[in-house]
Amino acid sequence: MQDVIVVIGAGSIGQAIARRVSAGKHVLLADLRPENAAAKTLTDAGFEVTTTTVDVSSRASVHALVEQTTALSQVSGLIHAAGVSPSQASPEIILKVDLYGTALVLEEFGNVMTRGGTGIGFAVGAPLAGADGQARQGSRHDSG
């Protein structure tokens, strides 16, 4: 079987990158929601696609995704585009998904990625409020 490109977060960003880097590869789309319109879009575009669910904030779920992926073939690419913003979730959930979830994905897939494999990750860069209640950009380092 072809090498596998794993796409976590099947939204527009994940789909756009998958379309550009997955020629000749098997695409495994993983998302929190089981309904996955991206699968039809990519299949219609000529890609071989498998879908599954994953909760990136759960080590067991991410590990199960790695096992499912390696059962298909070797992993030559990872597109991590899952995340939530303040309009979607509380600060606790944002940190659990965007920070902890990203760390889990990188740790687990880092153990199985083929030599020369590529990983692409996107952080939501969600605005967060500081201890003083002032809005700050999530990626900004600010001591105040």
Which percent range describes the beta-strand content? Answer: 25-35%
Looking across the biggest beta sheet, what order are the strands in?
3-2-1-4-5
pLDDT under 50 segments (min length 5)? 126-144
Structural class by secondary-structure content: alpha/beta
Radius of gyration: 16 Å
What series of H and E elements makes up the topology? EHEHEHEHEEE
Helix content: 25-40%
- Largest sheet report: 5 strands, parallel
Q: How far apart are the termini?
A: 53 Å
Overall geometry:
globular
What does this protein look like?
The strands form 2 sheets. The chain has a 5-stranded parallel sheet, with helices on both faces. Strands 6-7 form a two-stranded antiparallel ribbon. The protein has helices spanning about 10-20, 35-45, 60-70, 90-110, and strands at about 5-10, 25-30, 50-55, 75-80, 115-120, 125-130, 135. Residues about 125-144 have low confidence and may be disordered. The protein is α/β, with parallel strands linked by helices and about 140 residues long. Helix content is about 35%, strand content about 25%.
List the helices and strands and how they pair.
Blueprint: E1 4-8, H1 12-21, E2 26-31, H2 37-44, E3 48-53, H3 59-72, E4 75-80, H4 91-110, E5 113-121, E6 127-129, E7 135-137
Parallel strand pairs: 1-2, 1-4, 2-3, 4-5
Antiparallel strand pairs: 6-7
Helix pairs in contact: 3-4
